[in-house]
Amino acid sequence: MSSLTVRKLNVDLSRGFARHWLDGDVYRTAFMNALSMSFPLGEQMFIDSVRAAPPEAILDPGLRAEVKDFVGQEASHRFVHQQYNAELARQGFDYTMEPAIRVRVERIRKLPVRDRLAITCALEHYTAMLADYVLRNPDFLDGAEPRLRTLWTWHAAEETEHKAVAFDVYRAAGGGYWKRALWYLHVSLVFWWDTSLQTAHNLRRDRALGRRSTWASAARTWFGRKGLAWHLLKPGLDYLSPRFHPWQHDNRALLRMWLEHNDDAYRPIGSTSI
Ligand SMILES: [Fe+2]
Ligand SMILES: [Fe+2]
Questions:
Q1: Does the pLDDT of residue 270 top 90, yes or no?
Q2: Quick one: which H or E segment has residue 266?
Q3: Cα of 40 from ligand 1 centre, angstroms
Q4: How far apart are the first and last CA of the chain?
Q5: How many whole angstroms from 213 Cα to the centroid of ligand 1?
Q6: Which of 62, 93, 118, 159 would bridge with 183, disulfide CB 3.0–4.6 Å?
Q7: Which residues does 243 contact at the CB level (< 8 Å), separation at least 6?
Q8: How many domains does the structure of the chain reveal?
Q9: Cα–Cα distance between 94 and 204 in angstroms, integer?
């Protein structure tokens, strides 16, 4: 099992950042900004779901401690992305999908706890796959504003570190295969629909939706040599195996490497040794 550390990120976003902070690439910036916009609501939902698990289901003290640190990590991600999103709002980018997503989150809150956990596991699998991509392909963020590169890779490192926590809680709470698989299929459609629409809204705000260069970058990002689509394909399907567990794909080396090379970027504020 992993051991988690809650870290405070040494990044100050109060002086803002450039509108096209990812190497001037309008599409990639819009896509990453759309993800950032979705995090405060999404991560609060993850926190609420794992906290809703009945304490008598989580008998393992190690898992109980990891849940506490999972909450700590997601709460600090929310805090940092709220600052990030405040700057986007200052730049004139609205979180257009927010009302629809608030309704969805409210509906999820009323579901039985295993369904809430299955939805959290599915979204955590997506964040883990995207995190693996960002850590494995540092050139994806080449030319990015350094503070945002640090922010995104820190988030990716911690998503990697805690990628199995919601999954282990789901199983400890008696969650089975079919519920997990069916919610994953549903979440896959909704997550990419919401993210794509918000990306399109961000591009429209920049009057870049119809530009050829926007779509060339989108095609490269998704279907180029190191495209996201190819990266997501196998682990995306692996989740549908009844024997799937997030640590079957052991990428702790990427996490260790980030921690070693970025020890001035964060301050550990808590840890749970297992
Ligand atoms: Fe997170
Ligand atoms: Fe997470």
A1: no
A2: strand 266-272
A3: 9
A4: 7
A5: 31
A6: 118
A7: none
A8: 1
A9: 11
Distances (CA, A) of 44 to 81, 108, 129, 149: 12, 12, 20, 23
How many angstroms is it from 90 CA to the middle of ligand 2? Answer: 26
Ligand 1 center to 14 CA (angstroms): 21
Is residue 3 domain-resident? no
Burial 185-214 (b: 16+ CB within 10 A, else e): eebbeebeebbeebbebbbebbebbeeeeb
Cα–Cα separations (whole angstroms), residue 270 to 36, 73, 165, 260: 24, 10, 17, 18
Q: Is 141 exposed, middle or buried (0-12, 13-18, 19+ CB in 10 A)?
A: buried
Closest CA to 66 of 116, 124, 136, 150: 124
Q: Which two tokens stand for residue 264?
A: 């001035």
Does residue 106 sit within a domain?
Answer: yes
Q: Ligand 1 mean position to 212 CA, how many Å?
A: 33
Q: Quick one: tokens of 41?
A: 């609501």
Percent of the chain with pLDDT over 70: 97
What is the Å distance from ligand 2's center to 43 Cα? 7
Q: Determine the 3-state secondary structure of 144 from DSSP.
A: strand
Q: Which residue type does 96 have?
A: T
Q: Tell me, what's the pLDDT at 2?
A: 46
Measured in angstroms, how far is the CA atom of residue 216 from the centroid of ligand 2? Answer: 30
Question: Does residue 37 lie in a domain region?
Answer: yes
- Amino acid in the structure at residue 233: L
Q: Give the pair of three-digit tokens for residue 34.
A: 């759309």
Whether residue 74 is contained in a domain is answered as: yes
pLDDT in tens, 120-154: 999 999 999 999 999 999 999 999 999 999 999 99
Q: The domain containing residue 61 runs over which residues?
A: 16-263
Residue 159, Cβ density class (10 Å: 0-12 exposed, 13-18 middle, ≥19 buried): buried
